[in-house]
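DATA SHEET
Item: assembly model
Revision: 1
Owner: S.N.
Input lines:
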Amino acid sequence: MARIDLDLAHSYKPNPQQDSDYALLPLKMTFEDGGAYALLGPSGCGKTSLLNIISGLVRPSQGTVAFDGVVMNDKTPQQRNIAQVFQFPVIYDTMTVAENLAFPLRNRGVSADRIKLRVGKIAEMLELSGQLDVRAAGLAADAKQKISLGRGLVREDVSAVLFDEPLTVIDPHLKWQLRRKLKQIHHELKLTLVYVTHDQVEALTFADQVVVMTRGRAVQIGSASDLFERPQHTFVGHFIGSPGMNFLPAQRSGSGLQVAGCPVAATGPLPAASGALRLGIRPEYITLAAPGAPGAVPALVTQAQDIGTYWLVTAQVGTGGAATTVRARLNPEAAVPAAGQTVWLAVLGSHTCFYANELLVSATSPIPEVSA
Amino acid sequence: MKPVNQKAWFLILPVILCVAFSAILPLMTVVNYSVQDIISPERRVFVGTEWFKAVMRDDDLQGALLRQISFSLAVLAVEIPLGIALALTMPAKGWQSSAVLVTIAISLLIPWNVVGTIWQIFGRADIGLMGATLAALGIEYSYTGNATQAWLTVLLMDVWHWTPLVALLCFAGLRAIPDAYYQAASIDGASKLAVFRYIQLPKLRGVLVIAVLLRFMDSFMIYTEPFVLTGGGPGNATTFLSQYLTQKAVGQFDLGPAAAFSLIYFLIILALSFVLYNWMQRVGTADKAAETGHA
């Protein structure tokens, strides 16, 4: 087990000139010993590159990877003592399930008794005990992936276990079960776990700390509530939440604001920035307001959908070129506006964030500032 | 009963005609020869299985068969491991890879009788590079005088000629293994030997079946290269089955025994390939059956 410090950048090209040449832009972060982390981002954002750099399959083109303060750049995955589970199951065809699970231990000269004990324990955790003597090649994809997971978890002394979208091939109902298993294993073994995924639910349920990445940049590191309440970057607002955060063009005017061309009276402190701003508010925090109420904008409802536990109302704020679509999750007990109706939506409240150049400049949310 | 649609016969009729014209009829001619004693085109006598019995008792044939089997086994024993080893050391990408692929394929592009001629000159003690080098080293070497050396030279020639084929097949097989396997092995701390034993060799099984079959059948039918190099000598040290057959049919014009032996030869190759194929497939399908059974 180890604390992992990253201070690096990586490009697969020999002479990177501009940002787009980099798979990973310069970043600096620390994975604490025993923590559960998720790297979250869309495909191609650099999360797998980052994982392979940690494990030693890829050498960073700049900067360092350090485990417990020791620079590991030139060390092989074996020397780093890393376990890694890949997106698609990798099994050794000619071996049985038990032999597959024992393989990482056997290669390191662990005694036969010890191997038997560990394999038995891991097989039990993953519910593979009944199939230990079966040829691994003959199993279904999810059982094969469980074997891959097992091989990643079978060693107790690893620096960290890295997961690269390990549940892609697993059926949805098994996904929950396996994710819970992983969480449980994390509690039992206190291993450092790093989990790559593009699924926000997976990341937020699995990890204590989520690293949100886009285009080779780690835009925010934080807990689920940090990412939800106070996105440091508009991308995080978009990417986290379902639907994502609403963004409205805004500008200071006098003591109030212009939001999508509509004057709005302030309800609290506003950002000092005088340039173009974007107002961000989660659909969950938008409420209906009385016409002309401070902090509210008029909006034309275009659609209202019943999503079971709430109504999803889509509305247009502003007109012409400044018109912006806003989505609100409304409580079904309140009177729900119908399409074509004009309503007033409160967008300035205790959960409103302001962005300039995609970055958070000020928030009215009560959560204290969290350093990224 | 379900009515049977006979229309399909019209569709396969052209194929049947072509195959009959090019394969079945000539084969039947051979069958015809094998059961008759042809004295002249007008005078022929039905002799039943006499030629078959005579051929089976022939010492020369038994010698050639034994020589042939040991030669084919030696070819497999050398070319398959050597081909795998070559494929493992070939560069996987970049211009080096292309360069090596082209270089290694050269011997496959040379006509077979030219291969024989190349080795004939290569092995000569007076002007050949290998022969002269061996002579300079004080080793007495002559593929025309020494039976063992002649046999080894033919083997070496076949290895030189055909190992690249095995190497190319294995190279293609190796490239088809996803990177994730190597990455997982590296994470699992597998040694190079373990990677070979548990990843590369099992994944190469498919191409190895093809390589073994091709090399077995080809080497079992070898004719041109030893014919050019040694002409079957010295004595009959390098007279393999096809050469024995040619001597009988074209040399001595014993059409009956030659035809009888042709059929036996054909059946031997067919039977051995069938056994070999099934045996190698069973190793493979044991996994496949289990896979589909559980999935």
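QC remark: Chain A touches chain B at residues 52, 55, 57, 76-78, 82-84, 86-88, 90, 92-95, 103-104, 107-108, 134-135, 137-141, 148, 151-152 (CB under 8 Å).
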